[in-house]
Amino acid sequence: MGKKGAKRHLKRKPAPKFWPISKKQFVWAIRPSPGPYSLKNCLPLGMIIRDILGFAETRREAKKIISNQKVLVNGKMRRKDDFPVGLMDVVHIKEAEKTYRVLPSPKGYILHPIPAEEANFKLCRIENKTLIKNGHIQLNLHDGYNLLIKVAEPANPVEDVYTTLDVLKIKLPEKEILEHIKLKEGVLAIITSGKNMGKHGKIVEIEKREGQKRRNWLATIQDAAGNTFKTRLNYVFPIGENQSLISLPEGD
Questions:
Q1: Distance, CA of 26 to CA of 61 (rounded, Å)
Q2: Of 81, 87, 112, nearest to 37 (Cα)?
Q3: Which run of H or E residues covers position 121?
Q4: How far is 86 from 69, CA to CA, in rounded Å?
């Protein structure tokens, strides 16, 4: 017989390696529902509550916490334990009054505790730009959300100051643009993938490669201790001009 829709189950053995779950203790894992992130780039909300933060011992307990409207993701209530949570998303646990941001680390994604003043915004990277009807600009962000930039004069789009791989500071949950960080030499950035995942510092050089897409250009990042790391521009996520807009784990 033919395939009947998408898979709804996931065994632990083929689950992403960075998920903090035992591969042999149990058979099944929580499969994230289809959404803005791929399976290898997200954490199911139920796993965050149970396995990472430890607010529940079983999936049933995690489901109860989530369905009772006690968990917010990016300022919105989420009621499904398979909801996918990805890079830079903000998770707030109401009763515990604790807030976390999803950040990259050498072992994958982690939930980093953040102060209350950081809970009302997130950083989103521009993955693509689209010209739509009446000359307006649509920005396609890394978390699957689209922002509309209205242009007064299509022949002279002065409002279009955005480039792919730039980062926007977005107000939550209104999705308003608070700040724009261009991807260029001199800004602070964090590496989101590859062998240097989780390293952060200043972009000291961007090496253009003729005949290659901009995403494949080589970027050199220098941390506060003077160590340098090279990675593809596609793995570079700007986090601030002169200082980081978000708090980062100590020692990374």
A1: 17
A2: 87
A3: strand 121-131
A4: 20
For 49-119, strand residue ranges (E) read 71-73, 76-77, 84-85, 90-93, 98-105, 108-113
d(C-alpha 182, C-alpha 166), whole Å: 5
Final residue before a domain boundary, out of 116, 137, 163: 116
- Residue 83 belongs to domain spanning: 10-116
Same domain membership, residue 35 and residue 81 = yes
Residue 112 falls within a domain, yes or no? Answer: yes
**47-104, pLDDT tens digit by residue?**
999 999 999 999 999 999 999 999 999 999 999 999 999 999 999 999 999 999 999 9
Residue 210 neighbours by CB under 8 Å, 6+ apart: none
Q: Which residues contact 85 (CB under 8 A, 6 or more apart)?
A: 37, 42, 43, 44, 45, 48, 73, 91, 102
pLDDT digits (tens, 9 = 90+) for 145-158: 999 999 988 888 88
| pTM for this prediction | 0.91
Place of tokens 């950035």: 189
**Distances in whole angstroms, Cα of residue 20 to Cα of each of 45, 133, 225:** 13, 45, 29
